[in-house]
Amino acid sequence: MIRNNLIKLIFTKRQYAFFFLLVFSFYASYSHVLKTHTIQQVEEVKNKKQSLKSLDSIIKFHFGKRDAAMSLFYLEHYIDLSLQQGKFEEAIDKLDESILVIVHNFRKRTEFEKLIEKCETYSVQITDNRLKGKLYSVRGYFYVFTSKRQKAGIALDKADSLLINDTSKSRAKVLYYRGLGKLQTGNYDQAFNDFNTAGKLYKKLGIMEEYYNTRAYIIDMYYRVGLYHKSAQEREKLIQEKLDGKVFERIPFEYINLANAYRNLENDEKRRESIRAALEFLKNEGETDENLLYRRLVYANLVHIEASANDIDQAKYFLDLLSNSFPSVESRESNPFYKIAESDYLRVNKQYQKAISILKEMMENEYNKGSYQYKNAANIISSIYESMGDFEKALMYSKRYHRIKDSVATLKKSNALSYYESLYEKEKSDLEILRQQEAIEDLENEVRLRKREMVYGFLALFLLFLILFLFRNYTYLKRKNALQTKFSQGLLISQDLERKKISKELRDSVGQRLLLVKNQLPSEYDELKESLDTGIEEMRAISRTLSPIQLQELGITSAIRNLVDVMDESNSDVFFFGNIENIDGLLSKEKELSLYRLIQECFSNVLKHAKAQSTQLKLKKNKENEIEVTIQDNGIGFEFSKKFKDLRSLGLKTIEERVRYLNGTLNVESKQGKGTIYKLLIKTS
Asked: What angle do CA 344, 350, 355 make, to 5 degrees?
């Protein structure tokens, strides 16, 4: 305690600041002296091999520290020292092994290109074609990393011509990077040949990681040209080989690509199995940037899989995992995979408008209108609008989706043709046959061009006739549906009028006659009079059922309340009750009668099929002047879609027609053993 007090007395705030400044200055001076001393040591042993080894160790040390400036500083001295000593191969090899770090990771492109140019000034002294080829290959790799594909192709072609007889890692690497450039430009036949040859060299040299990478790119080409079965088969073989060889690099990514192949094959079981395998593998992996990307892809796939299976809880679980994998809201909201996953969850959760908003914003921000994300967003929006019943917008986005899909399919067919042609060409070895083949191909191209023009013309006419036919068919169906709806609603109105007429006849004619007969009977026929009273009362009940007098005299609200009371009194097995607000004057007389009949039909269904103990009716007017009707029972329930498709189920179809006449919407919720709920919403304006 005394010691701590002494320290507090000795060191004031200013003294602390001065002390840290002194330490920092000493460290900076020491670093400068250390760097100068290191270079001086290297210069002193300039003519010895140990100097290059020392610099090599220093460079690797700063690579590990991710120190771009110091790495480049010592690399430049290494190149200078190698060239001065005439050790061109050491200089070229050092550039080769440093390009990924300096150009790709540190982004020091201009500085690295100057080092390449420095080596090229000494190339006149190089007589070995192998060394010249390695120098061209470094230039080619530089152009690949800087996305200058045309220049990369020229440099790598030159390197390959100089290394044509070489079977070392250098030529394999040249072929690998040239294949990568051809793949990026869509030149699949040459890419396949380069990857295939590079893979054989890597395997022969025992460099298995690079061998597996070439295999993966070849499988990727199968996928790109639409050979999904081939892609899935080869990907499964590759994964098994890597697992057997204990090469675990990119295994999760291989499983994700396998899942994508099965998605295109519409094999949901295999797709789920592949994604689950990737997730299990990632559980034992560290938190690297690469593994984080794999996790996001896996979570996004699982959200889609669970949403497609209508498992809302599981979809939400994986969406939360995906959301938490992003460091900030901005990075999450700008990620297309997250937006697609979020929209999948919102769709299955019936939050349609929010899902559409997210997808439309994503489509607006997507610069590539033919991308997978853009196509997928259009397809999801189309399905959402279809679920909402907005078929016009669903059709519009469906056309967008199929337009992109068809163009991609055409490209894949073209690429597949190119791929098979490359395999065919690869089997040719005789130069004379190759010359003849070139002549044949020229002739075939001319014939193909003419055939293509004829085919395109035929397709254009066919599409024109198809469009006209579909339009005519669509117009016909629309008119037919309108007439059918008009006929059905007219039939219901006619039925109601006929019921009213029969009710009036029963009440005014038959009822009066029975009452007259009863009054004319002598007093000793009391038993017969009682029978006549019962018959008259039953006749009046039938008359009220056919045409409720309360509806005409007291209004719709009283009529519905009376209907609930009558149903409760006349059915001892089922308890009918309701909460009914006043809706008089909100509907026309015809629609009031139709609403009354609709409720009557629902009650009838409960009595006939539900086996319920109680039934509740709620009727109210909301703030938008809409009428909300809810009829709920605690019966055995039923499967609505199956029952509605049953041709014998006339009750549900009658209810549907009355809902359409009322300009309303009906939602039926029913589960086996949990009762049924009819929810009706009627617009009054």
From this structure: 50
pLDDT digits (tens, 9 = 90+) for 517-554: 666 666 666 667 667 667 766 666 665 565 566 666 67
State the Cα–Cα distance between residues 345 and 342, nearest whole angstrom.
5
Nearest to 70 by CA among 16, 119, 106: 106
DSSP for 437-460, written as a single string: HHHHHHHHHHHHHHHHHHHHHHHH
**Span between the terminal Cα atoms of the chain, in Å:** 86
List 628's β-bridge partners, or say none: 620, 681
Q: How many helices (H) and strands (E) does the chain have?
A: 29, 5
For residue 609, what are the CA distances in angstroms to 312, 315, 606, 678?
32, 36, 6, 15
Measured torsion, CA atoms of residues 357, 362, 364, 370, in degrees rounded to the nearest 10: -130
CA 271, distance to chain mean position in Å, is 14
**Number of neighbouring beta carbons within 10 Å of residue 399:** 12
Strand, helix or coil at 276? helix
Report the alpha-carbon distance of residue 111 to residue 103 in Å, rounded: 9
Report the SS3 class of residue 121.
coil
Residues with Cβ < 8 Å from 363, sequence gap 6 or more? 374, 377, 378
Return the structure tokens found at 174. 């040249």
Amino acid at 58: I
Q: How many CB atoms lie within 10 A of CB 311?
A: 14
Alpha carbon distance 95, 78 (integer Å): 10
Token pair 């060191």 is found at 11
Q: How confident is the model at residue 630 (pLDDT cuts 50, 70, 90)?
A: very high
For 93-114, write each residue's pLDDT tens digit: 888 888 888 887 888 889 989 9
92 Cβ contact partners less than 8 Å away, ≥ 6 residues apart: 119, 131, 134, 135, 138
CB 601 within 8 A of CB 575: no
SS3 state of residue 283 = coil
